[in-house]
Design brief:
By secondary structure, the chain is α/β, with parallel strands linked by helices. It contains 21 helices and twelve strands. The chain has a six-stranded mixed beta sheet, sandwiched between helices. The protein has a four-stranded antiparallel beta sheet with strand order 4-3-6-7, with helices on one face. A two-stranded antiparallel ribbon has the order 1-2. Helix 4 (64-113) runs antiparallel to helix 6, helix 7 (168-215) packs antiparallel against helix 9 and helix 7 (168-215) packs across helix 12 (308-325). It is elongated.
Protein backbone atom coordinates (compact mmCIF):
# COMPACT_ATOMS: atom_id res chain seq x y z
CA UNK A 1 0.00 0.00 0.00
CA UNK A 2 1.58 3.32 -1.03
CA UNK A 3 2.10 5.94 1.66
CA UNK A 4 3.08 9.59 1.68
CA UNK A 5 6.34 10.44 3.43
CA UNK A 6 8.28 13.68 3.18
CA UNK A 7 6.00 15.03 0.47
CA UNK A 8 6.14 12.04 -1.89
CA UNK A 9 4.37 8.71 -2.20
CA UNK A 10 6.38 5.63 -1.26
CA UNK A 11 5.39 1.99 -0.94
CA UNK A 12 5.54 -0.11 2.20
CA UNK A 13 8.35 -2.12 0.63
CA UNK A 14 10.42 1.00 -0.07
CA UNK A 15 9.71 2.26 3.43
CA UNK A 16 10.90 -1.02 4.97
CA UNK A 17 14.01 -1.16 2.81
CA UNK A 18 14.88 2.39 3.81
CA UNK A 19 14.46 1.38 7.44
CA UNK A 20 16.78 -1.59 6.98
CA UNK A 21 19.26 0.79 5.34
CA UNK A 22 19.78 2.36 8.75
CA UNK A 23 20.76 -1.07 10.10
CA UNK A 24 23.50 -1.41 7.45
CA UNK A 25 26.30 0.19 9.56
CA UNK A 26 25.82 -2.63 12.08
CA UNK A 27 25.58 -5.46 9.59
CA UNK A 28 28.17 -7.59 11.41
CA UNK A 29 26.17 -7.65 14.63
CA UNK A 30 22.99 -8.06 12.60
CA UNK A 31 24.36 -11.04 10.66
CA UNK A 32 25.66 -12.49 13.94
CA UNK A 33 22.13 -12.34 15.36
CA UNK A 34 20.61 -13.78 12.16
CA UNK A 35 23.10 -16.68 12.14
CA UNK A 36 22.32 -17.74 15.70
CA UNK A 37 18.62 -17.20 15.08
CA UNK A 38 18.69 -19.51 12.04
CA UNK A 39 20.67 -22.07 14.03
CA UNK A 40 18.02 -21.88 16.74
CA UNK A 41 15.29 -22.35 14.15
CA UNK A 42 17.03 -25.39 12.66
CA UNK A 43 17.04 -27.10 16.06
CA UNK A 44 13.24 -26.89 16.28
CA UNK A 45 12.53 -29.81 13.89
CA UNK A 46 15.20 -31.79 15.76
CA UNK A 47 12.84 -32.12 18.73
CA UNK A 48 10.18 -34.28 16.99
CA UNK A 49 12.99 -35.91 14.98
CA UNK A 50 14.46 -37.26 18.23
CA UNK A 51 11.08 -38.28 19.62
CA UNK A 52 10.46 -41.02 17.02
CA UNK A 53 13.66 -43.09 17.69
CA UNK A 54 13.38 -42.21 21.39
CA UNK A 55 9.93 -43.72 21.71
CA UNK A 56 10.38 -46.62 19.30
CA UNK A 57 13.93 -47.45 20.43
CA UNK A 58 13.45 -47.15 24.20
CA UNK A 59 9.85 -47.85 25.15
CA UNK A 60 9.05 -50.31 22.32
CA UNK A 61 12.30 -52.00 21.26
CA UNK A 62 14.20 -51.31 24.53
CA UNK A 63 17.41 -50.62 22.60
CA UNK A 64 20.17 -50.02 25.23
CA UNK A 65 22.05 -47.56 23.00
CA UNK A 66 18.96 -45.39 22.63
CA UNK A 67 18.27 -45.68 26.35
CA UNK A 68 21.74 -44.26 27.10
CA UNK A 69 22.20 -41.61 24.37
CA UNK A 70 18.68 -40.20 23.91
CA UNK A 71 18.56 -38.21 27.20
CA UNK A 72 22.08 -36.88 26.56
CA UNK A 73 21.17 -35.78 23.04
CA UNK A 74 18.08 -34.00 24.35
CA UNK A 75 20.17 -32.17 26.98
CA UNK A 76 22.72 -31.07 24.33
CA UNK A 77 19.91 -29.99 22.00
CA UNK A 78 18.27 -27.74 24.58
CA UNK A 79 21.64 -26.36 25.70
CA UNK A 80 22.39 -25.36 22.09
CA UNK A 81 18.91 -23.83 21.73
CA UNK A 82 19.33 -21.77 24.89
CA UNK A 83 22.75 -20.49 23.85
CA UNK A 84 21.61 -19.57 20.35
CA UNK A 85 18.49 -17.84 21.67
CA UNK A 86 20.48 -15.71 24.11
CA UNK A 87 23.13 -14.79 21.52
CA UNK A 88 20.55 -13.71 18.95
CA UNK A 89 18.55 -11.67 21.49
CA UNK A 90 21.67 -9.83 22.71
CA UNK A 91 22.74 -9.03 19.13
CA UNK A 92 19.33 -7.70 18.10
CA UNK A 93 18.90 -5.72 21.34
CA UNK A 94 22.25 -4.00 20.65
CA UNK A 95 21.30 -3.24 17.03
CA UNK A 96 17.88 -1.95 18.13
CA UNK A 97 19.46 0.42 20.63
CA UNK A 98 21.88 1.79 18.03
CA UNK A 99 19.06 2.18 15.51
CA UNK A 100 16.95 4.21 17.96
CA UNK A 101 19.98 6.37 18.80
CA UNK A 102 20.80 7.01 15.14
CA UNK A 103 17.22 7.89 14.19
CA UNK A 104 16.81 10.18 17.19
CA UNK A 105 20.09 11.86 16.31
CA UNK A 106 18.90 12.41 12.72
CA UNK A 107 15.54 13.72 13.93
CA UNK A 108 17.06 16.06 16.51
CA UNK A 109 19.61 17.32 14.00
CA UNK A 110 16.78 18.06 11.57
CA UNK A 111 14.78 19.76 14.36
CA UNK A 112 17.73 22.09 14.97
CA UNK A 113 17.86 22.93 11.25
CA UNK A 114 14.15 23.35 10.54
CA UNK A 115 12.91 26.79 9.50
CA UNK A 116 10.97 28.91 11.98
CA UNK A 117 7.83 28.45 9.87
CA UNK A 118 7.83 24.74 10.76
CA UNK A 119 7.59 25.54 14.47
CA UNK A 120 4.82 28.03 13.72
CA UNK A 121 2.77 25.25 12.11
CA UNK A 122 3.51 22.30 14.44
CA UNK A 123 2.75 21.95 18.14
CA UNK A 124 5.68 21.24 20.45
CA UNK A 125 4.04 18.16 21.94
CA UNK A 126 3.62 16.55 18.52
CA UNK A 127 7.28 17.12 17.67
CA UNK A 128 8.40 15.66 21.01
CA UNK A 129 6.12 12.63 20.59
CA UNK A 130 7.72 11.80 17.26
CA UNK A 131 11.19 11.67 18.81
CA UNK A 132 10.23 9.89 22.04
CA UNK A 133 7.43 7.51 21.04
CA UNK A 134 7.20 6.96 17.29
CA UNK A 135 10.87 6.12 16.85
CA UNK A 136 10.69 3.25 19.37
CA UNK A 137 8.00 1.58 17.27
CA UNK A 138 10.30 1.65 14.27
CA UNK A 139 12.81 -0.69 15.91
CA UNK A 140 10.19 -3.41 16.25
CA UNK A 141 9.76 -3.41 12.47
CA UNK A 142 13.50 -3.30 11.81
CA UNK A 143 14.67 -6.00 14.24
CA UNK A 144 11.98 -7.87 16.15
CA UNK A 145 9.75 -8.37 13.11
CA UNK A 146 12.66 -9.49 10.95
CA UNK A 147 13.80 -11.84 13.68
CA UNK A 148 10.37 -13.45 13.83
CA UNK A 149 10.06 -13.63 10.04
CA UNK A 150 13.43 -15.33 9.52
CA UNK A 151 13.43 -17.60 12.56
CA UNK A 152 9.82 -18.76 12.38
CA UNK A 153 9.86 -19.14 8.59
CA UNK A 154 12.84 -21.50 8.91
CA UNK A 155 11.05 -23.36 11.72
CA UNK A 156 7.84 -23.72 9.69
CA UNK A 157 9.69 -24.91 6.58
CA UNK A 158 11.77 -27.37 8.59
CA UNK A 159 8.77 -28.82 10.43
CA UNK A 160 6.70 -29.08 7.23
CA UNK A 161 9.57 -30.88 5.49
CA UNK A 162 9.86 -33.34 8.37
CA UNK A 163 6.08 -33.88 8.44
CA UNK A 164 6.12 -34.50 4.68
CA UNK A 165 8.86 -37.06 5.24
CA UNK A 166 6.79 -38.85 7.89
CA UNK A 167 3.40 -38.85 6.10
CA UNK A 168 2.70 -37.01 2.88
CA UNK A 169 -1.10 -37.39 3.16
CA UNK A 170 -1.34 -35.40 6.37
CA UNK A 171 1.22 -32.93 5.12
CA UNK A 172 -0.83 -32.21 2.00
CA UNK A 173 -3.77 -31.35 4.27
CA UNK A 174 -1.57 -28.81 6.03
CA UNK A 175 -0.44 -27.31 2.71
CA UNK A 176 -4.05 -26.89 1.56
CA UNK A 177 -5.12 -25.03 4.70
CA UNK A 178 -2.12 -22.64 4.90
CA UNK A 179 -3.24 -20.37 1.96
CA UNK A 180 -6.46 -19.68 3.86
CA UNK A 181 -4.33 -18.30 6.68
CA UNK A 182 -2.31 -16.18 4.24
CA UNK A 183 -5.43 -14.42 2.90
CA UNK A 184 -6.68 -13.59 6.36
CA UNK A 185 -3.22 -12.37 7.38
CA UNK A 186 -3.23 -9.91 4.46
CA UNK A 187 -6.63 -8.51 5.43
CA UNK A 188 -5.60 -8.14 9.06
CA UNK A 189 -2.33 -6.44 8.04
CA UNK A 190 -4.12 -3.72 6.07
CA UNK A 191 -6.48 -2.93 8.94
CA UNK A 192 -3.66 -2.89 11.49
CA UNK A 193 -1.68 -0.42 9.39
CA UNK A 194 -4.56 2.05 9.27
CA UNK A 195 -5.33 1.69 12.97
CA UNK A 196 -1.67 2.15 13.92
CA UNK A 197 -1.44 5.36 11.92
CA UNK A 198 -4.57 6.76 13.58
CA UNK A 199 -3.30 5.68 17.00
CA UNK A 200 0.01 7.50 16.55
CA UNK A 201 -1.74 10.70 15.45
CA UNK A 202 -4.06 10.53 18.46
CA UNK A 203 -1.11 9.90 20.79
CA UNK A 204 0.53 13.06 19.43
CA UNK A 205 -2.61 15.07 20.14
CA UNK A 206 -2.84 13.68 23.68
CA UNK A 207 0.83 14.52 24.30
CA UNK A 208 0.23 18.05 23.02
CA UNK A 209 -2.70 18.59 25.43
CA UNK A 210 -0.60 17.19 28.27
CA UNK A 211 2.31 19.50 27.46
CA UNK A 212 0.04 22.56 27.35
CA UNK A 213 -1.44 21.65 30.73
CA UNK A 214 2.02 21.33 32.30
CA UNK A 215 3.30 24.59 30.83
CA UNK A 216 0.13 26.55 31.55
CA UNK A 217 -0.74 25.15 34.97
CA UNK A 218 -0.80 28.60 36.60
CA UNK A 219 -3.23 30.03 34.05
CA UNK A 220 -5.40 26.91 34.35
CA UNK A 221 -5.58 27.28 38.13
CA UNK A 222 -6.27 31.01 38.19
CA UNK A 223 -8.85 31.05 35.39
CA UNK A 224 -10.61 27.85 36.41
CA UNK A 225 -9.70 25.83 33.35
CA UNK A 226 -9.32 22.53 35.18
CA UNK A 227 -12.59 20.99 33.99
CA UNK A 228 -12.18 22.04 30.36
CA UNK A 229 -8.57 20.81 30.25
CA UNK A 230 -9.62 17.55 31.87
CA UNK A 231 -12.35 17.10 29.25
CA UNK A 232 -9.83 17.79 26.45
CA UNK A 233 -7.36 15.28 27.83
CA UNK A 234 -9.97 12.59 28.53
CA UNK A 235 -11.37 13.02 25.01
CA UNK A 236 -8.00 12.28 23.39
CA UNK A 237 -7.03 9.67 25.99
CA UNK A 238 -10.30 7.83 25.38
CA UNK A 239 -9.63 7.78 21.65
CA UNK A 240 -6.19 6.35 22.38
CA UNK A 241 -7.88 3.67 24.48
CA UNK A 242 -10.43 2.89 21.76
CA UNK A 243 -7.81 2.64 19.03
CA UNK A 244 -5.54 0.50 21.22
CA UNK A 245 -8.49 -1.81 21.86
CA UNK A 246 -9.23 -2.04 18.13
CA UNK A 247 -5.57 -2.87 17.46
CA UNK A 248 -5.62 -5.62 20.09
CA UNK A 249 -8.98 -6.95 18.85
CA UNK A 250 -7.83 -7.04 15.24
CA UNK A 251 -4.51 -8.61 16.17
CA UNK A 252 -6.15 -11.17 18.45
CA UNK A 253 -8.73 -12.23 15.86
CA UNK A 254 -6.08 -14.31 14.11
CA UNK A 255 -5.69 -16.70 17.06
CA UNK A 256 -9.18 -18.33 16.83
CA UNK A 257 -8.59 -18.99 13.13
CA UNK A 258 -5.28 -20.73 13.82
CA UNK A 259 -6.80 -22.70 16.68
CA UNK A 260 -9.62 -23.85 14.39
CA UNK A 261 -7.18 -24.99 11.69
CA UNK A 262 -5.15 -26.77 14.37
CA UNK A 263 -8.23 -28.64 15.60
CA UNK A 264 -9.02 -29.82 12.05
CA UNK A 265 -5.45 -31.01 11.52
CA UNK A 266 -5.29 -32.88 14.83
CA UNK A 267 -8.63 -34.59 14.10
CA UNK A 268 -7.35 -35.73 10.69
CA UNK A 269 -4.09 -36.88 12.29
CA UNK A 270 -5.96 -39.07 14.75
CA UNK A 271 -8.16 -40.61 12.06
CA UNK A 272 -5.34 -41.28 9.59
CA UNK A 273 -2.60 -42.06 12.10
CA UNK A 274 -4.63 -44.70 13.93
CA UNK A 275 -5.74 -46.40 10.70
CA UNK A 276 -9.44 -45.59 11.08
CA UNK A 277 -9.65 -44.60 7.41
CA UNK A 278 -8.50 -48.05 6.27
CA UNK A 279 -4.74 -47.39 5.99
CA UNK A 280 -1.99 -48.97 8.02
CA UNK A 281 -1.63 -47.29 11.39
CA UNK A 282 1.52 -45.30 12.17
CA UNK A 283 4.01 -46.53 14.74
CA UNK A 284 3.84 -44.99 18.21
CA UNK A 285 7.06 -43.09 17.61
CA UNK A 286 5.94 -41.80 14.21
CA UNK A 287 2.51 -40.82 15.50
CA UNK A 288 3.84 -38.91 18.52
CA UNK A 289 6.62 -37.38 16.42
CA UNK A 290 4.15 -36.10 13.81
CA UNK A 291 1.84 -34.86 16.55
CA UNK A 292 4.76 -33.06 18.22
CA UNK A 293 5.85 -31.54 14.90
CA UNK A 294 2.32 -30.26 14.32
CA UNK A 295 2.18 -28.90 17.85
CA UNK A 296 5.49 -27.12 17.33
CA UNK A 297 4.25 -25.80 13.99
CA UNK A 298 1.46 -23.62 15.32
CA UNK A 299 3.40 -21.34 17.72
CA UNK A 300 5.66 -20.03 14.92
CA UNK A 301 2.63 -19.67 12.62
CA UNK A 302 0.91 -17.68 15.39
CA UNK A 303 3.97 -15.48 15.72
CA UNK A 304 4.15 -15.00 11.97
CA UNK A 305 0.51 -13.95 11.92
CA UNK A 306 0.92 -11.84 15.07
CA UNK A 307 3.94 -10.05 13.63
CA UNK A 308 1.53 -7.89 11.64
CA UNK A 309 0.72 -5.67 14.59
CA UNK A 310 4.33 -4.58 15.40
CA UNK A 311 5.14 -4.53 11.67
CA UNK A 312 2.28 -2.21 10.78
CA UNK A 313 2.85 -0.07 13.87
CA UNK A 314 6.54 0.09 12.99
CA UNK A 315 5.86 1.10 9.40
CA UNK A 316 3.37 3.73 10.55
CA UNK A 317 6.04 4.99 12.95
CA UNK A 318 8.62 4.95 10.16
CA UNK A 319 6.33 7.15 8.05
CA UNK A 320 6.22 9.70 10.86
CA UNK A 321 9.97 9.49 11.59
CA UNK A 322 11.08 9.76 7.97
CA UNK A 323 8.55 12.53 7.32
CA UNK A 324 10.37 14.62 9.91
CA UNK A 325 13.83 13.61 8.68
CA UNK A 326 12.77 14.53 5.13
CA UNK A 327 11.45 17.97 6.10
CA UNK A 328 13.39 20.57 4.10
CA UNK A 329 15.86 22.42 6.34
CA UNK A 330 16.44 26.14 6.39
CA UNK A 331 17.59 27.38 3.02
CA UNK A 332 21.25 28.26 3.27
CA UNK A 333 22.37 29.06 -0.26
CA UNK A 334 24.82 31.77 0.75
CA UNK A 335 28.52 31.15 0.27
CA UNK A 336 30.17 34.32 1.57
CA UNK A 337 31.63 34.54 5.07
CA UNK A 338 31.35 37.82 6.99
CA UNK A 339 34.33 39.13 8.93
CA UNK A 340 35.11 42.43 10.68
CA UNK A 341 31.51 43.60 10.37
CA UNK A 342 30.88 47.27 11.13
CA UNK A 343 27.12 46.77 11.44
CA UNK A 344 25.49 49.10 8.90
CA UNK A 345 22.03 47.62 8.28
CA UNK A 346 19.91 48.55 5.25
CA UNK A 347 16.32 47.54 4.42
CA UNK A 348 15.71 48.19 0.74
CA UNK A 349 12.15 47.75 -0.64
CA UNK A 350 11.65 44.79 1.69
CA UNK A 351 8.34 42.91 1.47
CA UNK A 352 7.32 39.76 3.31
CA UNK A 353 4.41 37.35 3.51
CA UNK A 354 4.01 34.18 5.54
CA UNK A 355 3.78 30.93 3.59
CA UNK A 356 0.22 30.41 4.84
CA UNK A 357 -0.91 33.87 3.67
CA UNK A 358 -1.61 35.44 0.30
CA UNK A 359 -1.12 39.03 1.48
CA UNK A 360 2.08 40.81 2.45
CA UNK A 361 2.69 41.46 6.12
CA UNK A 362 5.43 43.99 5.29
CA UNK A 363 5.26 46.25 2.25
CA UNK A 364 8.36 47.84 0.65
CA UNK A 365 10.20 48.85 3.80
CA UNK A 366 13.06 51.31 3.38
CA UNK A 367 15.29 52.39 6.25
CA UNK A 368 18.95 52.43 7.29
CA UNK A 369 20.49 51.68 10.69
CA UNK A 370 23.99 53.27 10.65
CA UNK A 371 26.84 51.45 12.37
CA UNK A 372 26.88 51.84 16.14
CA UNK A 373 23.46 53.52 16.31
CA UNK A 374 20.13 52.48 17.83
CA UNK A 375 16.90 52.35 15.82
CA UNK A 376 13.64 51.64 17.64
CA UNK A 377 10.52 50.08 16.13
CA UNK A 378 7.24 51.09 17.75
CA UNK A 379 3.61 50.68 16.85
CA UNK A 380 0.44 48.75 17.74
CA UNK A 381 0.46 44.98 18.26
CA UNK A 382 0.41 43.06 15.00
CA UNK A 383 1.93 45.90 13.00
CA UNK A 384 4.97 43.81 11.97
CA UNK A 385 7.69 44.94 14.39
CA UNK A 386 8.80 41.46 15.47
CA UNK A 387 8.60 40.22 11.89
CA UNK A 388 11.04 42.96 10.82
CA UNK A 389 13.51 41.92 13.51
CA UNK A 390 13.11 38.23 12.55
CA UNK A 391 14.20 38.95 8.98
CA UNK A 392 17.68 40.14 9.98
CA UNK A 393 18.94 36.71 11.23
CA UNK A 394 16.92 35.11 8.38
CA UNK A 395 14.42 33.30 10.56
CA UNK A 396 12.14 33.96 7.59
CA UNK A 397 13.00 34.57 3.93
CA UNK A 398 11.92 37.92 2.50
CA UNK A 399 9.43 37.95 -0.38
CA UNK A 400 10.89 40.97 -2.13
CA UNK A 401 13.64 43.57 -1.91
CA UNK A 402 16.86 42.98 0.00
CA UNK A 403 18.50 43.43 3.37
CA UNK A 404 22.14 44.54 3.42
CA UNK A 405 24.65 44.22 6.22
CA UNK A 406 27.78 46.23 5.46
CA UNK A 407 26.54 46.52 1.85
CA UNK A 408 26.38 42.71 1.51
CA UNK A 409 23.05 40.99 0.76
CA UNK A 410 22.44 38.71 3.75
CA UNK A 411 21.08 36.01 1.40
CA UNK A 412 24.58 35.69 -0.07
CA UNK A 413 26.07 34.96 3.36
CA UNK A 414 26.06 31.58 5.08
CA UNK A 415 23.56 31.36 7.94
CA UNK A 416 26.28 30.43 10.42
CA UNK A 417 28.40 33.41 9.41
CA UNK A 418 25.45 35.84 9.45
CA UNK A 419 24.14 34.76 12.84
CA UNK A 420 27.61 34.89 14.36
CA UNK A 421 27.39 38.67 13.86
CA UNK A 422 24.05 39.01 15.70
CA UNK A 423 23.05 38.90 19.37
CA UNK A 424 19.45 38.66 20.53
CA UNK A 425 17.63 39.44 23.79
CA UNK A 426 13.89 38.80 23.79
CA UNK A 427 10.98 39.45 26.09
CA UNK A 428 11.19 35.93 27.48
CA UNK A 429 14.81 34.96 28.04
CA UNK A 430 15.52 31.37 27.08
CA UNK A 431 17.62 29.66 29.74
CA UNK A 432 18.61 26.01 29.64
CA UNK A 433 18.56 23.60 32.58
CA UNK A 434 22.26 24.08 33.23
CA UNK A 435 24.54 26.26 35.33
CA UNK A 436 24.55 30.05 35.25
CA UNK A 437 28.01 29.96 33.69
CA UNK A 438 26.91 27.53 30.96
CA UNK A 439 23.95 29.75 30.08
CA UNK A 440 26.09 32.88 29.82
CA UNK A 441 28.76 31.15 27.72
CA UNK A 442 26.18 29.31 25.61
CA UNK A 443 27.29 28.82 22.00
CA UNK A 444 30.82 30.17 22.54
CA UNK A 445 33.25 27.53 21.32
CA UNK A 446 36.41 29.16 22.65
CA UNK A 447 37.38 28.81 26.30
CA UNK A 448 36.06 31.66 28.42
CA UNK A 449 38.26 32.77 31.29
CA UNK A 450 36.67 33.26 34.74
CA UNK A 451 37.59 36.95 34.53
CA UNK A 452 35.79 37.44 31.19
CA UNK A 453 32.76 35.62 32.57
CA UNK A 454 32.73 37.83 35.66
CA UNK A 455 33.20 41.01 33.61
CA UNK A 456 30.21 40.13 31.41
CA UNK A 457 28.06 39.42 34.45
CA UNK A 458 29.14 42.69 36.09
CA UNK A 459 28.37 44.73 32.96
CA UNK A 460 24.94 43.07 32.85
CA UNK A 461 24.33 44.01 36.51
CA UNK A 462 24.03 40.29 37.24
CA UNK A 463 27.14 39.66 39.34
CA UNK A 464 25.57 40.60 42.68
CA UNK A 465 22.65 38.17 42.46
CA UNK A 466 24.85 35.43 40.96
CA UNK A 467 27.22 35.65 43.93
CA UNK A 468 24.23 35.21 46.25
CA UNK A 469 23.16 31.94 44.60
CA UNK A 470 24.07 28.72 46.46
CA UNK A 471 26.87 27.75 44.07
CA UNK A 472 27.46 31.07 42.35
CA UNK A 473 28.19 30.63 38.64
CA UNK A 474 27.91 26.84 39.11
CA UNK A 475 24.28 27.03 40.28
CA UNK A 476 21.88 25.05 38.08
CA UNK A 477 19.03 27.43 37.14
CA UNK A 478 16.41 24.73 36.46
CA UNK A 479 13.98 24.44 33.56
CA UNK A 480 13.53 27.87 31.91
CA UNK A 481 15.59 29.40 34.73
CA UNK A 482 12.85 28.68 37.27
CA UNK A 483 14.98 29.62 40.32
CA UNK A 484 15.60 33.14 38.93
CA UNK A 485 13.27 36.10 38.79
CA UNK A 486 12.23 37.67 35.48
CA UNK A 487 14.75 40.48 35.82
CA UNK A 488 17.53 38.07 36.77
CA UNK A 489 16.80 35.93 33.73
CA UNK A 490 16.94 39.01 31.51
CA UNK A 491 20.27 40.10 32.96
CA UNK A 492 21.59 36.57 32.43
CA UNK A 493 20.55 36.83 28.76
CA UNK A 494 22.19 40.28 28.50
CA UNK A 495 25.42 38.87 29.95
CA UNK A 496 25.27 36.16 27.26
CA UNK A 497 24.91 38.83 24.57
CA UNK A 498 27.74 40.89 26.07
CA UNK A 499 30.07 37.91 26.08
CA UNK A 500 29.26 37.10 22.46
CA UNK A 501 30.19 40.69 21.58
CA UNK A 502 28.42 40.69 18.21
CA UNK A 503 28.30 43.96 16.21
CA UNK A 504 24.51 43.73 15.60
CA UNK A 505 22.02 43.52 18.46
CA UNK A 506 18.28 42.81 18.38
CA UNK A 507 16.21 43.68 21.46
CA UNK A 508 12.64 42.38 21.28
CA UNK A 509 10.66 44.10 24.06
CA UNK A 510 13.38 43.13 26.52
CA UNK A 511 11.86 45.10 29.44
CA UNK A 512 8.11 45.00 28.78
CA UNK A 513 7.37 42.17 31.24
CA UNK A 514 9.46 43.53 34.14
CA UNK A 515 8.58 45.43 37.26
CA UNK A 516 10.02 48.91 37.83
CA UNK A 517 12.93 47.77 40.00
CA UNK A 518 13.94 44.98 37.62
CA UNK A 519 13.53 47.30 34.64
CA UNK A 520 15.94 49.79 36.21
CA UNK A 521 18.67 47.13 36.51
CA UNK A 522 17.97 45.75 33.03
CA UNK A 523 17.99 49.22 31.47
CA UNK A 524 21.40 49.88 33.00
CA UNK A 525 22.63 46.57 31.61
CA UNK A 526 21.16 47.35 28.19
CA UNK A 527 22.93 50.69 28.18
CA UNK A 528 26.25 48.82 28.48
CA UNK A 529 25.15 46.27 25.90
CA UNK A 530 24.10 48.71 23.17
CA UNK A 531 27.21 50.86 23.42
CA UNK A 532 29.05 50.90 20.04
CA UNK A 533 26.67 48.31 18.56
CA UNK A 534 24.14 48.53 15.76
CA UNK A 535 20.93 47.99 17.69
CA UNK A 536 17.41 47.28 16.49
CA UNK A 537 14.95 47.73 19.38
CA UNK A 538 11.32 46.62 19.46
CA UNK A 539 9.76 48.67 22.21
CA UNK A 540 6.44 48.55 24.00
CA UNK A 541 7.37 51.00 26.73
CA UNK A 542 8.21 54.17 24.84
CA UNK A 543 10.05 55.62 27.82
CA UNK A 544 12.82 53.07 27.20
CA UNK A 545 13.64 54.32 23.68
CA UNK A 546 13.46 58.11 24.00
CA UNK A 547 17.23 58.29 23.51
CA UNK A 548 17.26 56.14 20.35
CA UNK A 549 19.02 57.70 17.36
CA UNK A 550 15.93 57.09 15.22
CA UNK A 551 12.43 55.83 15.93
CA UNK A 552 10.33 54.15 13.22
CA UNK A 553 6.57 53.99 13.71
CA UNK A 554 5.24 50.83 12.07
CA UNK A 555 1.59 50.40 11.14
CA UNK A 556 0.17 47.60 8.98
CA UNK A 557 3.63 46.64 7.75
CA UNK A 558 4.77 50.08 6.65
CA UNK A 559 6.80 52.92 8.13
CA UNK A 560 4.35 55.75 8.72
CA UNK A 561 6.60 58.06 10.78
CA UNK A 562 10.31 58.35 11.48
CA UNK A 563 12.62 60.62 13.42
CA UNK A 564 13.97 61.27 16.89
CA UNK A 565 11.79 61.28 19.96
CA UNK A 566 11.66 65.09 20.04
CA UNK A 567 10.88 65.34 16.32
CA UNK A 568 8.03 62.82 16.53
CA UNK A 569 6.53 64.48 19.59
CA UNK A 570 6.63 67.80 17.77
CA UNK A 571 5.00 66.18 14.72
CA UNK A 572 1.92 65.33 16.78
CA UNK A 573 1.19 62.13 14.85
CA UNK A 574 0.78 58.48 15.83
CA UNK A 575 3.95 58.35 17.95
CA UNK A 576 2.90 61.42 19.89
CA UNK A 577 -0.52 59.87 20.51
CA UNK A 578 1.04 56.59 21.69
CA UNK A 579 3.43 58.43 23.99
CA UNK A 580 0.79 60.67 25.48
CA UNK A 581 -1.48 57.66 25.99
CA UNK A 582 1.22 55.80 27.92
CA UNK A 583 2.24 58.89 29.84
CA UNK A 584 -1.36 59.54 30.75
CA UNK A 585 -1.80 55.95 31.98
CA UNK A 586 1.36 56.27 34.02
Amino acid sequence: MPKETGGRIISSRELYLRLLGHVKPYWRQFVFGIAFMVLLALTEPAIPLLLKPLLDGTFVERDPDFLFWSPILLMVLFLVRGTCGLASQVAFAWVSGKLVLDLRKLMFDRILNLPTSYYDAHATGIIINKVTHNVTQVTAAATKVLMVLVRDSVIVVGLLAYMLYLDWRLSVTVFVLLPVLAIVVRLIANRLRGLSRRLQATMCEMTHVLGEAVRGHKVIKVFGGRESELRRFVHHANWVRRLQFKVKLTDGSSSPLIEGVAAIMIALLIYIGTGQLGDNPMSVGAFVSFLAAMGLLFPPIKRLVGVNQPLQSGLAGAESVFAMIDEPPERDEGTAVMENVQGRLVFSQVSFRYSSSTENVLEQLDFVVPSGTTTALVGPSGSGKTTIASLVPRFYAISGGKILLDDMDIREVTLRSLRSQISYVGQESVLFNDTVAANITYGIEADVSPQDLEDAARAAYALDFINELPDGFDTVVGEDGVILSGGQRQRNAIARALLKDAPVLILDEATSALDTESERHVQSALHNLTRNRTTLVIAHRLSTIVHADEILVINEGSVVERGSHADLIALGGQYSALYQNQFGQA
